[in-house]
Design a protein that fits this description.
Elements (H helix, E strand, L loop, with lengths): L2 H17 L7 H19 L28 H4 L1
């Protein structure tokens, strides 16, 4: 990321911090909104490349090594 975007983000953060109280929006309301906004972003942008959904990283289950045994839980045996 270039430093220009960091400066733009910092300036917008300072302006929001100074302007939002005049609109009647407190910091608690702002943080709650950002938390709600962060949830779908994390679902769409994160967690899909770190072995999630099968461990292959691409949504495919991993292949078993030759001679490997498949572990069956006691619940599945019954």
């Amino acid at each position: 990321m270039k430093r220009t975007w960091l400066w733009v983000g910092a300036v917008l953060l300072v302006l929001a911090f100074l302007y939002l109280p005049s609109l009647g929006i407190g910091l608690g309301q702002l943080f709650a909104f950002l938390l709600v906004l962060l949830c779908p972003l994390m679902h769409f942008l994160g967690g899909h490349r770190h072995g999630a959904h099968g461990g292959g990283g691409a949504g495919e289950p991993e292949a078993l090594a030759p001679g490997a045994e498949i572990k069956v839980s006691k619940r599945e045996e019954a």
